[in-house]
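Retro notes, item 3 of 5
We never archived the inputs for the D-mannonic acid complex last cycle. Fixing that now. Sequence and ligand:
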Amino acid sequence: MPKRLSETNLADLPSAVALPSYDRREVTTGIVHLGVGAFHRAHQAVYVDDILAQDPRWGIAAASLRSPDTYDALVPQDGLYTLSVRSGEGEALRVIGAIQRVIVAPQAVEDLLRVMADPKTRIVSLTVTEKGYCHDPATGTLNESHPDVVHDLQNPHLPRSAPGFILEALRRRRVARIAPFTVLTCDNLPSNGRTVKRVLTRFAELSDPAFGRFVADEVSCPSTMVDRIVPATSDEDRRRIREALGVTDAWPVVTERFTQWVIEDRFPQGRPAWESAGAEFVADVEPYEHMKLRLLNGSHSTLSYLGYLAGYETVADTMADPAFEGLIAELMDEEVTPTLHMPAGADLRAYKRALIERFRNPALRHRTWQIAMDGSQKLPQRLLGTVRDRLREDAPIDRLALGVAAWMRYVTGIDEKGAPIDVRDPMAACLRERADQAGGSPERLARELFAVRDIFGDDLPNDERFTGPVSAALAKLYSKGAKRTVAEWTQSVRS
Ligand code: CS2
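Structure as it came back at the time:
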């Protein structure tokens, strides 16, 4: 077995592999990051790595809120890991050194709270996925009966949830008269900063109204738009990267060249000069966020449900079917673009062209099954916000409806050949129960699922202009299957 990647063998790596350009011993911790998944390591951690040579105060202490897997992989490697950037033209490797330590929250609650409460920590950032905010996806407000919320309110010193950790750390800072850190959410939520602020304020208020007011008045939660496609690392990636490095990296991350980060510039305790690493600071992120969530993520979810049902394993495989590519191009042009209001100078056509290329990237094996996860948490901001804007204009929503219908078909948990689907979703059991109630009738299935208010709210289930097209698309998916539905459907819309 080759040795593990670590500080001691960095100098022996092949010269084509880029290395940290700063002295890691000089780096101090300025950021605590919650949710140290592949996305963080291929996105924010790289922006940090880019600025540490000019400003070593922003090293990252990264926490997993659940699993020890990343800790087990990275600690023997001194926190180092490989970033692989892949396109049809090849692969570029770079070792990232920005993560100074990894903490497994459930095993080290005090350690994590201590570093969050440390005055040197000025930013607490998060990628905990949509479901990590303990909110109701349809309204963006705290889900007060969420088991983790109930637990953390009863045991504030032993939090489990991301908001619970943030509040306990803020409480300690407040008592010690240390200014609050900035809370920087990097998840694909609508108005993510505003959402996290709403959740934190209500959560704090439930424990103590004065603390709630403090959070409302004193804690800055800038919104961000984050973008980089980062599929789960496969064993084949690990093997290839081990061969290229000559040492083993237990958990490299694999991504595309494209990367974007748009951030509202509200950091009362200071921030890294991320603009020098390509981040864009703006006064209002919302237009960029709508653009990204609706064009990229909305298309991604549509492709993943339809693609999975059609038997395609990856996004690139799905896009290689011209009917699917056609559908996505039309979805973006006809139904999403009219809902966007971009600042002058934003080039949506170029953005969409680039998106199609990114989805086609044959070097990324981004599984449709991976993107299909957690649909109950994703649908509202990816498809349903667009639907509402369209309905307000009385405009057609047929392609959006097909995406929603494909999700409905997917969460039944049985694919087109009768084989089980491993549906991963916090609401999987409830969705499955409703699907079983429907007994295989698409009409009843649609009715059962429209009734899930946490996803569809109170308005959409009562609007014929929404329920009609979704039910019609679902009936087609049942009678013809996803592949034929998409093929015939693009033809019929074109003719
Ligand atoms: C994807 C996103 O898994 C998913 O739901 O749509 O992770 C997507 O790859 C990123 O948002 C791209 O920035």
